Every structure is written in C-alpha cells, then in structure tokens.
Fold:
Amino acid sequence: MSARVEALGKPPSDDPSLIEAERGTSLWRDAWHRLAKNKMAVASMIIFITITLASFSGPFFLKQSYETQDLRLGAVPPNAQHWLGTDTLGRDLFVRILYGGQISISVGICATAVALTIGVLYGTTSGFLGGKVDALMMRVVDIIFALPFTVFVILLMVFFGRKFVLLFVAIGAVQWLVMARIVRGQVLSLRHQEFIEAAEALGLSKLRIIFRHIIPNTLGPIIVYATLTVPSVMLLEAFLSFLGLGVQPPMSSWGVLIKEGAEAMEEFPWLLIFPGLFLSITLFTLNFLGDGLRDALDPRASKD
Amino acid sequence: MLRFVARRLLQMIPVLFIIATMTFFMLRLAPGGPFDSEKSVTPEIRKNLEAYYGLNKPVYLQYYDYLANVVKGDLGPSFKYPNRTVNELIGESFPISAELGFWSLLVALAVGLPAGLISSLRPNTAIDYIPNSLAMAGICVPNFVLGPLLVLIFALTLGWARVSGWDEPIDRVLPALTLGAAYAAYIARLTRGGMLEIFSQDFIRTARAKGASPLRIILKHAMRGGLLPVVSYLGPAVAGLITGSFVVETIFQIPGLGRYFVNAAFNRDYTMVLGAVLFYGALIVVFNLIVDVALVWMNPRLKFE
Amino acid sequence: MSEENRSTNSGETLLRVNNLRSYFHTRAGIIRAVDDVSFSINNGETLGIVGESGSGKSVACYSLLRLIPQPPGKIESGHALFDGVDLLHCPDEQLRDICGNRITMIFQDPMTSLNPYMRIGDQVTEPLVIHRRISRAEAWQRGIEALREVGIQDPVSRIRSYPYEFSGGMRQRVMIATSLITKPRLLIADEPTTALDVTVQAQILELIRKMQLELGVAVIFITHDIGIVSSFCDRVLVMYAGRILEAAPTAQLFYQPKHPYNRALQKAIPALHEKGDELYTIPGTPPDVSKPIHGCPFALRCEFAVEKCLTSAIVLKEVAPNHQSACLRVQLGEIDLTPAR
Structure:
C-alpha cells in the first residue's frame, strides 16, 4: 500500500486538515437564535417594552398632568392638543392611559413574581421530595384548583374591602397553582435522570442539587409560563376593576378606564376604544412573546 | 367505569366541604355582616337570619346547623330582599345563565373547532397564520372590552340588535358572541395543537401506507386523539364561562345568576353571595366529573387506571 | 397459494426503481439521503437492503410510497415502475389505490405504529374497508382469521382489544396481519424486528417467512443486521451514504464479496472471531451526507482505497454474473476480495 493509503487508513478525526471546526452552542444561545428568527415574537417584545417605557416615563414628558381637569372642555375626541382626546372631566386621555398602564403593568409583573416564587418553591419541593409528601402537596393543589377561585377573589374583595394589598394577595393566590404544577412536573422528570443520580452519588447536598442542577433546568418552562402569567394577571385585575372591585379611585388602571369608557361610550366612544386597545395590544404582545419563548426553548413542542 | 365515577364523586366531597366551610367563616368575619351587631338590618330580615343561623347558639352548633342546611339544599334567606330565599333567586336566574352559557359554548365550538382543524392542515402558511392571529386577538381582547365594542358597532351604530335585554331571540346573539369569543380562540388553538401533535405520530404514517384518504385520516385516525385537549379544556372552560357571565350579564343587563351575584356582592347580600358561591362550586365540580368521564371514554389507555 | 403458483410467476419483474434521488432541504443544508439508487425485485423474491443507520435504506423505501413529508423532503429524480404505474409520479388517488392493497408496509416500532385510540379490529380490517367492497361483518370475520394466522390466541375476543393491551411482539404480529390481509404482491418490512426482544425476533421472522411462502408475496426486508439477511433473503443490496455499493444473491454476497465495505461488515461479525480475539470495527464514521461527496463515500475508511477512489464518481456495474459492485478497483480487476480458504 502507498503511504497515501496508509494515511487514509486512519480515522478522519485524527487528520486536522479534514476536520471542520464546529462552533459549540449552549441551550440558551440556541434558544436566543430561534427566538430572534421569530419576527412576531421579537416585534411583540419591542412593542411591550415600548408601552412599558412609555407608561413609566411618558408622563414626565407630557405637559398635561394626570389630574388636570378642564370642566369647560368636557370630553372631546382626539385632536392636536389631546392626542387621544379627553374624558368627561376634561382630563387628557393619553396621560390617564399611561398612568393606568403603570398600575396595570406593575400589578401584572409583581403579582406574577409573587405567584412565581410561591409556585416554584412549592413545586420544586413537592417534585424533589416525591413519594407521599409529593402526593399530599399535589392533593392540596388539586383541591384548591377545584375551587371557583375567581369567585373567591371577588368575595375577598367584597367582604374585606378593596385594599390594594389585598388585590395582590388575591390574584397571586390564584396564579401560583398552575406554576407549582408545571414546575413539579419538570422536577419529577428531571429527578430520575442520570445526571442527578450522578450528582447524588458524588455526595452533593440536596439543596445544592436543587439550586444548581434542577432549577436551572426548569428555567425554560418557568420563563415561558411567567411570561404567559403576566397577561393573565393583568386580565384578572382589569376584570375586577371593571366590576368595581379592583383598583379604586384616585388610582386608575386600564380596567377602570375601560369601565368608565363603557359607561360613556354612547356619546364618547374613544373613551372605551383607546384604553381597550392598549390593554388588548399589551396582552397580545405578551402572549405572542410567551408563545415564541415556548417555541424557542422547546422546539419539539412547537407547531412543526 | 362505575367505580371510577363513584371514586371521583367521593373525591369531590372534601372540595365542597372546604367551600362551605370557607364561606361560613368568611361570613362570620366580614365587617358589616349579619354578625356585626352595629349593622342595621330590618327587623324581618333579622328574624329570618336568627332563625336560619341560630345566632344565639355557640359557634360549633351554628356551623353544624349551617352544614346541615346546606346538605338539605337550603341556602337561607336573602339578606336584602325580605321574603325571598336564596334558593328562589338562584332558581329564577340560573336557567337564564345556563342558556347563555350554552349558546356561548356553541359559538366557541362552532367557530373554534373548524378554525383549528383548518389551521392544522397547512401549518405555517397563510391558512394557518390568519386564523391563529384572529384566535390570539380573540383571547387578548377581554370580554368586557369586546362586549361594549360589539354593542357600539351592532346596536348603537348599525341598529341590528338591542343594547340590552333578554326577551327576544336576537338578544342572545351579542352576549353569546362576547362570551364565546375567547373560548373559540382557545379551542381553535387547542384543536390545532392537538391535531398537529397527532399528525406527527407514526400511526398516521401507517394509515397513509394503507392508502387511507386524507379525509379518512382526519376523521377516523386523528380526531379521536387530537380532540382530547379540547375535551380536557371544557372543564376549566365552564368555570370560565361562569366568571365571564358576571361581566357579560352586567353589560347586557341579562337577569342571570351572574348579574344577581355581582349585585349581591355590591349590595352586601351576604347569604345570596355565599349561596351562589356554593352553587357555583357544586356546578364546577359536577362538570369536571362529566369531563373526566368523557376523557376516559375517549382515551382507552386511561381505562386502565 | 402454493409453491407452484409462486414459481410460475417468479422471474417477472415486479418493481423496478431507476435513479431514485431523495433529498431533504433543511436549514443545515441539503441532505442527500438517497443518491441515485436503482434496483429491481421480482415476483415472490425476498430482497434484503442492508446498511448502517443513515445509509438511506429506509428513506429509499418510504420515498417509493411517498410517505416522506414533501417539505423538507423532495424526490429529486427517479422512477419506480410497478404494474405499469410510476409510483413516484402518478396521481395521489392512484397511489392510494396501490398502498395497503398491492404494496403494503410494516414499520420498525410496533409500539407507535398502531393507533392507540382505535381497536385492533378496526385497524386490521381497515385495508379491506378501504380497498374492497365488503360488509363490515365480513371484514371483521376476515380480520379474525388474519389474527389467527399470525398466531394471536383467542382472536375472536382479542380483536376487540386496544393496542395498549398487547405486547410488542403481538403488536408486530397485528401489523403483519394488517399488511397481508389484502394479499399484496409486495411487502416492505422496515426493520420489523429491531425493536423487539431477541427471542421474539426469531418468531416474527419465522412468521414473515411462513406468510410469504403461503401467499407468494415479494418482500423487501430492510435491516442493519447482516446476519438476518443470510437466513432470510434471496438477494441483498448493501447501501452506504445513500448509495448502493453492492448487489448480489445472498450466498454470493457472503462468500464472494465484491466490495470492501461488505467485506468489512462481515469481518465485524463477532461470531466469526475466536474467543479472546480483538473485535474488528470499521475505523472512522459514516460521511456527512449534507455535504456533497466526490468519489466513493467509503473511501476514507477503506483499507484498499487509492487516490482515484476519492475523485472518481462511483457507478454500480456488474462484475460477475448477477453480481454488481460500485467499487472502482474491483470493477477494474485491481483487487480480489474473496477471502482465502
């Protein structure tokens, strides 16, 4: 055999000229790439961030204040001075929507954070401990889940007054359940995978295993679900406010604005349409973003 | 199967029990409730309340009496309307809400199922994106925005329907659309997801290798599994229809249980509120059971458990 | 059908495949899963297609029945003539008329190939329902008979069961019953025993053999296990990187290998080595079929390769009676791979 053939006889991986370097990727970078390709999701993210920034910083830049009333003016449709018109007390609608956005978005994010924390801790503990403890904890979740919870929230708000903190408690109490279930499901499936058994065999403490190995691997569904919980919470708050049970004057949220708009819509339809539009668009973008994240982090679960 | 149903019914009892207990204690703790002696109540109502709640008896006896009453199905007198019991009020208003719920669900299925099915046949094309986006919009425009909007367009501007009321058949249309829209959207998405999941399974390939026509594959092979998520969803959907009814009945002035409930909440008609909560709880529990039975029937694997 | 019937018809070409190219267009590139494959199978013949994972053996047969989703798959070229019909280019209705009827297929994983939501009976009788105009009752009866033939105990009650009630081996028997209930001319079996226990494997092979003899059906048997083909097949194709490297009657393939890949595969069979001997593995890994391959795809792993093997495109040519090889050096007579006796 010629020398060339001898060289050919070796496995290709030994010959540097035949190796094509492959760039390594991590799960997150892969996911980020997939997300970036999803134009709707990216657009949604941008729109949502814009709305949030506008709500929190906008009022600084606008001349009208939240409270300025102009009773002689009354409600006027959109014009150059008041971009979205004014309400029956002559207050600029755009500013009111921005302020309302602050409340609605804050409630959305904070209540989600609360639900997230409780849900993740509960679900991780339940899934990790397994066995009877897990069965019991999930039984509790099942039972609470079976209760007509929105109804209870209404009860809470009616009976115990319409305090803002109570609103948080009520909403958070409803949302943590599904998060707990999802996290527990993930933890259960991870629990018995070999790399966890390996970690245990190496003698790592349970706490360390939970925080360093299990929770990072559950982050995917957690992020997705958190992104989808925010609009759910915002909807719940708006719903309560619409019924008069949520945010109370002088604070205002999109739900309150929609309620006022619905009452006045016969003569002043813009009072309903614009707040409705803002709420709907925000929910839309968050849902789309959540969907996009879900597709990016777990392509198997996606449409294809 | 019978054992399954019996087991589930037994499981439901603790749930109802908890609801009853929670409502009882909420009643006692609520400021301004019948246990708040500073609240002024008309003498007749006070008399009825005392008879029902046995306000002079010790707490545990009151609790026991309350539970006994509930088990008997007696939900007590109204706090606000003398001479009317909660049972009566529920009996009057629930059938109306049930009818609204029925039409809404019909809208949801009639729109959602075909939309989701068509989407799933050509994923990631225009046929998919359009219904999908509409569905997304359906979910994201809350019913309390959609309702007034529909009224604005169809009643106030076009004059095709009335603004509110429940007397004529035409009155069913706007409320059913309002309430059903979000569910149509969810059902469309679930159908699409479920069908896509099934289409990617090996047994569909087997069916194609047998020479089955696309129609046959959809109807005989795919739907049974593909619609499972939709059936599963019907349980929570009913719960949602209930809460949705609060808003829709308020907007359209429909004399259903939802509107009574909201009014009772505002008027602090405590017994009515609590009675309604119990009733809703029982309703949801029963409906979830029906859905679970349907699921087991549809998915042969579950029969094993 | 008797043996006689079979031999009268045998010798006639049942299916002729010419220049089949089946590619996948993905973001990572064009994957040339099947790259210019031609073969034929006669009535009643058993043809084995052997190759590693990724050699294209399954894709080739799926492409014949157009079971590959057409994005991202695409049949770039080729013809597959069966009974005067080009399977690759005929209208859908015509193809559907043939599938499940005159050409049937069984798949690798019996656990996922059956519809978990349908009764066994509905699935076994489905080919009859689709392709024959008979009553449901009669179809059901035939279904029971079919189940009995494949060795399912108590078929009258078991026909009403659901797949989850059956074991893997039994499900594969059901698949076999389903695929033979219309008495097809050709059965394509894609690794039917790979997912089963070793003991069950032998039973299933026996069953297929028996049914084949009774019905005179031609069988294309796809497998990665060269040992199975030796007991089962009349002719064998050896595939690698989407191409056929060697084609011959079974005995000749084993005793007179005409391609280095075939010879290497046989060397790797553990049973052929003395106890304590080092096991032989073919060095290297199969090539990346998303990149175009010039020359012979096996060259980089071949102990006989020379310069021209890397640059000359390979062609399948007859190098001995009824025996084809794609090895350039064998075609030129430069090397002789017959093992010394």
Observations:
- Chain A is about 70% helix and 0% strand.
- The CA atoms of residues 224 and 293 of chain A lie 6 Å apart.
